[in-house]
Amino acid sequence: MLILQCPYCGIDAEETELAPGGEAHLKRHGPGSSDEDFHDYLFARENPRGVHFERWRHANGCGKWFHAARDTATLEVFGTYPAQTTEPPKEIRDAITARRPGWRWREFS
Amino acid sequence: MSARIATQGRLIDRSKPITFTFNGKRLHGLQGDTLASALLANDQMLVGRSYKYHRPRGILASGAEEPNALMGLGEGGKFEPNQRATTTELYDGLTARSQNHWPSLEFDVGQVNAALSRFFPAGFYYKTFMWPKSFWEKVYEPVIRQAAGLGAVPKERDADTYEYFYAFTDILVIGGGVAGLQAAKAAAQTGAKVLVLEQTPHWGGRAPVDGGTVDGEPVEAFVERTVAELSAMENVTLRTRAMGAGVYDHGYALGYERLTDHAPLLAGPRHRLWRIRAKRIITATGAIERTLSFAGNDIPGVMLASAMRDYVVNYGVAPGQRVVIATNNDDAYRTAIALKQAGIEVLRVLDARNSGGGDLMRQAHEMGIRIDCGRAIARVKGAKRVTGVSVCAHDGEGGALEEVACDAVAMSGGWSPVVHLWSHCGGKLIWDETQAHFRPDPNRPPTGADGEGFVVPAGAANGELMLDAVLSDADAAGKLAAKAIGFKPKRGKVPQGAGPEEAPMMPVWLMPARATTALRNKAFLDYQNDVKVSDVQLAAQEGYESVEHTKRYTTLGMATDQGKIANINGLAILADSLNAPIPQVGTTTFRPPYTPISMGAIAGEARGEIFQPLRRTPMHDWHDENGADWEPVGHWRRPYAYVRPGESVHDAVMREVKNTREKLGLLDASTLGKLIVKGRDAGKFLDMLYTNMMSTLKPGKCRYGLMCSENGFLIDDGVVARIDEDTFLCHTTTGGADRIHAHMEEWLQCEWWDWQVYVANVTEQFAQIAVVGPNARKLLEKLGGMDVSKDALPFMEWRDGQLAGFDVRVYRISFSGELSYEIAVPACRGRAFWDLLLKEGAEFGVMPYGTEALHIMRAEKGFIMIGDETDGTVIPQDLGLHWAISKKKDDYLGKRAQQRSHMTDPNRWKLVGLETLDGSVLPDGAYAVAEGVNENGQRNVQGRVTSTYFSPTLGRGIAMGLVLHGPDRMGEVLEFPGTDGKAFKAKIVSPVFYDKDGEKQNV
After folding, report:
1. Which of A19, B105, B518, B591 has its CA 20 to 30 A from that of B378?
2. Does this entry carry the keyword Methyltransferase (chain B) (predicted)?
3. Is pTM, for the whole model, over 0.80?
């Protein structure tokens, strides 16, 4: 029963208000992409013990999708931010670095 | 024998006798008794049979850890199985039944299992019931099911009510013993909001029984004073009969309050589930005494030493008249002293330690109690109750030195902190060598959203077993928790506890230390699941090195008590067998709830009609009043058919189809999803969502569209109407409206967030009625208003207008193959319009039809149904829907996936029609068999039925199915075995059975 702050409406939302959406920052591969790229886009997911970026929707609230950066092992939440971005914003990355120096996640660090 | 004694009994009221029944026998107890203490007061030492061997079992404990005394309580709608007698408060009229025996508790045929126990070792089920395979279903499983299991399943609907309670607090204190109370006080004095949950009806925990003083007063006075102080504080909420059931992520906790279990006549809900958010949680959950593993430690009359003194001090009940006590620590001397003070004969204290104990031993000795150091119990004698013990040297194999006749045995193997709630959300443990137990590791607490530990253990739950240490630890815990969330702890005097000096305990995992195999075979670790020392040793010998594997193989700790007593002893035996240190073997995972909570509490008020909200169309009541045979579709109810008096449901469906095809039918289509997609980029957006081209659709026109997931699989279909340049109305399936709405939002918000589109779900804003059949136009023309002629409103177009004064939007779309108008009116006008159609349509033979008639008519036309022809693995190409897949578009969701090799495989099963040779109806879901068998010896298959009906129009069974190379095999006959041995033969035909050229709908 996580609590995540919705970056749109500012509410500290209980998990029952939220719907999970899997990994964040997936790059869509459409027609013309290689089999491997498309396969990875559909199926290859990070499953880290530690820093992770996830998509959540404030489904029983304002309805907006947002991203959360958190630690899957300690449940620490480093921050949430709107989904309209292709990479974690700097302040989120800084917040993670402050707590987990040297972290890496896909191409981000 | 066990009996009530004249003295003691701090919790009972001797002036208030109570009558209750046990296995139909009327017995007497006192106000304040638990069911367990009352049974003991009536010399009912045998209270149940064990799970596997059906061994006679008595009461072992006095609290939540009790593994044996499980009862079926109450009758009828109030019956509940598996209730612990030790935590059941007695009330007048209580009815209890013991479990797991047949035909009776005293005489049980299952006991033969015990005689055969050497044939039932660990992993018995895995080893024995493997072969022959054919025996499993008919022989093994029914026998095991009959013999296994605990209580009976209630037969009637639960007559009680339950509720949820949402609570937000700064600090939650779980446990109302001296530690919990002191921690709560220290925290509350900072101004923090504090909630204290105590699972029993009484404050103070074990302390009033165990004794000692606080600041010079008896500990009981300290408890009373502290409770009074806390009660007077506005920022403190105190709840008894409320168990902390579980600790979860980010400070979420569940409390389980039993409101009327002790007094069923009280009004209101029986249980209340507290759903708590706390900034910090203090676990002051105490400790549980361990058993000693000696032979016969499960015979009725053998009891935990602490429980025995609870029964004497709290309830004035002597669990025996002549008692032998075995121990490895000082605490059991408290029992010896309490028993002696109550006038019960204490024959021996057998202290496994050669040097014995400290102050308490000296005190017992001074009272004249015989103490034998370095001694142990070799075996307990007796069957349904203890008759004596064989005494031996602890450091030996169990050769008897002496036989002592007695009627009860008290044992103490030391104390294990209750670390369950600390561990639920990831708190780690460390092994305390001195006290031989696991306790919370302060450096590895469960962490919250801020990355800080949010659970603080206090007192015995933190491994502090001495009164003075308990109080100072609890005081520190309360202050620490408050300080961590920004409150300022006051500097104040910490209450000083005082008690006797205790000598160190000595770990004893097997008694005597080198007990023979015969003895180990009768030394029980897990009473509820009948796991013995020898079973765990066998598991280790067979290579089970992980404690989690051993648990599953032997079932140690898997019963409803979750191994509260068994776990540490079991893993110590495992560690010893593996020659590994205990901390290296580790514990199994602690999972919530701490003790079982009722299903009623979990459901709360969500039952019966409010289990889930029901969605009703504006015409719902009319359907209900006119014979609707309801079918659940998502949260909606739709009429399957309207059954008239004297008709079967099948008759009604046949009548409805026939009437619609020949005259005029009405369908309540309001449940179909209606999504408005609007904006400058709406067309571009729909081109990505649908496989067809939607951007080229002209305002005023409709187009049938297919939607796929990014995996390529078909997820929904429906008719899209273009309202104006920027606006589309997308119809979805009934069950799909919310899902497809969410699907659209997801892509708009997360992928194409710069596109100018918004989506609104207006499903419930409109009532929609399909007017279907050859007479449809006649009816609408009679109503008067807009022009509904073929020229003014051709097939696959829509118009806004008025009919009989109603504002309507009319779509010329058809899911039946007939002349059909789907008419949307504002929801509030839906019923009036429906009534009008029925009234004015009477002369044209109007008749409403339900979802089954709808299904049959669409199947006759070969139209697919999402969920019938699709199951999440089907792509549009499988269904011959190539015409609905745009080849002009560069991209749409699912396009890339549909190019993957498996999706373009020519061997994918394809949609065809199926016609049985004899006109019968194919069974739904039946498979078409092919030559040969697979590796499991099953027939190979080459297709399956996706929809099957009796068509009244054609007077025969029709079906659709997916068949290997189906469209290329027209006319071929396939065999479909039924479930009853009958095989159906069906010919592959076109899926369009009726009006192949669409002449009827396009008029």
Report:
1. B105
2. no
3. yes
